[in-house]
Every structure is written in structure tokens, then in C-alpha cells.
Amino acid sequence: MLKTALRNFGTLTSKKPVYKKLQTRFNKLYDETTAMPLFLRLAWHDAGTFDAATKTGGPNGSIRFDKELAHGANAGLTWARDQIVIIKADFPDVNYADLIQAGGYIAVEYCKGPAIAFKFGRKEAPDDSHCTPDGRLPDAKLGADHLRSVFGRMGFNDKEIVALSGAHTLGLAHKDRSGFEGEWTTNSNTFDNAYFTELLKPQPNPKLLRLPTDVCLLHDKKMRKWVDKFAFDSADFFKEYAKAHKKLSELGN
Question: Record keywords: Oxidoreductase included (predicted)?
């Protein structure tokens, strides 16, 4: 059974023409809406519920169900989910789990971030009984111990946590969704290492956002070393981010 699952997950990389068509479709949507950060968030939140101990949650497409969309951390994602449903109608052979993660990969690359090798074959949640309880995603009001608890549950170490935090270089927070308002960088549609360079500035830009989960990366010695490294080496950030994002998007598969 394990060999079959691995074979199904791996050999589906031959669907490169399908992925190219998905890129074309998502890129057109991103040209029209600049909603790249929203689709990256949708992909992350679908994957970020994974629990390695119980083998529940993860990138299985369960976020498409209203039951999971109603979770507090998923506020503002309904429109993105609805767009996924529309795209799915044109790609009947691509399941929701893969489609949602593809949208995240393509968003990163569209914004000049790393191109991440995509694999098809994730297991799709058939109904909302596979939705996990609310509360598995990070809480922006908390600190390093909380981040280690949430990401450690999925199997991530400090370097991976900091690398993934760098995705805040894209998009902005909305008060009606998270309780916070603003952008992390001055160019929120470009994927680069500006999140880290902004964090290291001794005088924070008052127009930019710093969440407690951002600031804690500076004060925790084990995490701070990765902030420093990624701020001064964008190539290393891209490399480590791509690995961590790929890992997140394939949890449980």
C-alpha cells in the first residue's frame, strides 16, 4: 500500500503540461486581481492544520468546506475558495488538494519568488468530516514558544519556521480579519527578503506592520540567527523558503 501511494504521488510529476495550463490560468487571475497573497494564504491555511502525531489535517483541500472556512484564522478567504471552485470546473482531473497548493506555488513565482517543483497526487478530503478543530493555525498575538508548538506539531525546525515567516513579505493584514492592519514591506506584491531587512532596522518604519510573531524572531537567539542570515543572503532565503514551502505543501502525503 505504501509503495502504491508513493508511486501515485511521485509519478504524477509527469503532468507538467497540466501544471503549465494551471500557471496560465492562475497568472491571468493574478494579472486581473493582484490576489497572489490571498491564494498563498489559502494554500498555507489548508496545509497548516497538519498534526504529525495523529496524521490529521494538512493539504487535503478541506479548507474548501464552509465548516473550515468559518475558523477564525480563515476570515477573508471565501472569495479565494470560490475562485478555486471555478478553476476546478476547467480542471476536472486535478483534485482540490493539488489545486489549492498549485495556486500558492504559482503565486510565489508570479511575485518573483522561487520556482518550486510541484507534485500532483495529494489525498483530497471527500467531505467536511475531515476538517480539523479550530485553533491549529498560528496566533499572531503570541510568541516564539507558540510558533514552535504550532510548527513543531507539523515537524518544522527553527530555520524552517523563520524561512516560512518570510512569506509575510507578500500581502497585508486586515483589521477585520486578523485584528491587525498594514503591510510588512513597502512592496507587498514582490517576493524577496525585505521582510527580514525591515525587521533588522533599528528604527522601525511606522507605516509598516510588526506582529508579535514577527518581533519574537528578533528576541529569540535561535531564531534570530536565521533572520540575520536571510536578511543578508537573499539566495539562501529563497533556497530555504522553497524547501520549507514544499514540505508544508506535501505534509501527510
Answer: yes
Other Cβ atoms less than 10 A from the Cβ of 11: the count is: 12
In the chain, CATH 1.10.420.10 covers 144-245
17-35 tens-digit pLDDT: 999 999 999 999 999 999 9
- Which CATH number does the domain 144-245 belong to among 3.30.470.10, 3.40.720.10, 1.10.420.10, 3.10.20.580? 1.10.420.10
Q: Confirm whether 45 is a catalytic residue.
A: yes
Active-site position among 45, 71, 130, 245: 45
Using a CB cutoff of 8 Å and minimum separation of 24, what contacts does 154-160 make?
154/48, 154/50, 154/51, 154/52, 154/248, 154/251, 155/52, 155/247, 155/251, 156/244, 156/247, 156/248, 158/222, 158/223, 158/226, 159/226, 159/240, 160/240, 160/243, 160/244, 160/247
Each residue of 214-233: pLDDT tens digit? 999 999 999 999 999 999 99
Q: Coil, helix or strand for 182? A: strand
Residue 95 has pLDDT above 50, yes or no: yes
178 falls in which pLDDT band (50, 70, 90)?
low
Domain 2-136, architecture per CATH: Orthogonal Bundle (1.10)
pTM: 0.92
Three-state SS for 14-35 is: HCHHHHHHHHHHHHHHHHHHCC
CA dist., res. 131 & res. 70, Å (int): 11
